[in-house]
Amino acid sequence: MNRLTSRLLTLAGLLTAEVALGLAMFVAAFAGFFYMARVVFVHHSQALDTWAFATVDAWQQAHPWAEGPINFVTFFASLPFLLPATIIGPLVMRRFGHPREAWEWLLAMAGSVLLNQLLKLYFNRPRPVNTLLHTYGLSFPSGHAMLGLTFYGCLAWLLARHLRQRRWVAPLLLWAGLIGVTRVCLHAHYATDVLAGFAGGAAWLVAFRAGLKLFWKEEKAVLE
């Protein structure tokens, strides 16, 4: 009975304003992903994708100099960047005395990669036929959008929560959003792929953080 009571008290201690906000964010992100999936695979609507391609194409025709910056930005959520960065970043954080946070960052990325690939296989959406890049794999949800939001979102969280560097949160999240836009500019993904990637990445981050918090609380309770 004492063990059951302890567990119930631990769970009750998690019911804070932070948890309520996290739950609201998860529900919103999940709903956004679900809505994008219905638009694409149930209603078969191409209105948003067609409008997005037309908009970015018109902008790029008016600004031909943007090709270089677009390719530069999109690189920062590509495999050649994220693979070493996901190893080096946690190692640096561990070196500066934050081993737990280093593991959080690494595990968040590993889980996001796995979830993204499972979702791609499940939805099985081909990429746009008029892509401006030699791309591989399936399209929905966008890996650049989902992994980019996971990587930079997790980094923003760690900087704000553990290192008190809140000024980096908005720039990092805006950077992740800009990366998603470049995927539409390059016709590597449909706009619905990118929006679903953002929603999936946000939902995963919130769920992952909630799971970690519960795990650390349980571990602390056991040790005490």
First-to-last CA distance: 17 Å
How many beta strands in the DSSP annotation? 0
Reading the helices and strands in chain order gives HHHHHHHHH
How many DSSP H or I helices?
Answer: 9
Indicate the overall shape: globular
Largest sheet: none
Low-confidence stretches: 220-224
Integer average pLDDT: 87
Task: Tell me the strand percentage band.
Answer: under 5%
Structural class designation: mainly alpha
Q: Which value, in Å, is the CA radius of gyration? A: 19 Å
Proportion in helices: over 70%
Q: What do these coordinates show?
A:
By secondary structure, the protein is an all-alpha fold. Helices cover 77% and strands 0% of the residues. It is built from 9 helices and no strands. It has helices at 2-13, 17-41, 47-62, 67-74, 79-95, 99-123, 143-161, 169-185, 191-223. The radius of gyration is 19 Å and the shape is globular. The model is unreliable at 220-224 (pLDDT under 50).
Short description:
The protein contains nine helices and no strands. The chain has 224 residues and is an all-alpha fold.
Question: What topology emerges from the helices and strands here?
Answer:
Layout lengths: L1 H12 L3 H25 L5 H16 L4 H8 L4 H17 L3 H25 L19 H19 L7 H17 L5 H33 L1
Helix pairs in contact: 1-9, 2-9, 4-8, 5-6, 6-7, 6-9, 7-8, 7-9, 8-9
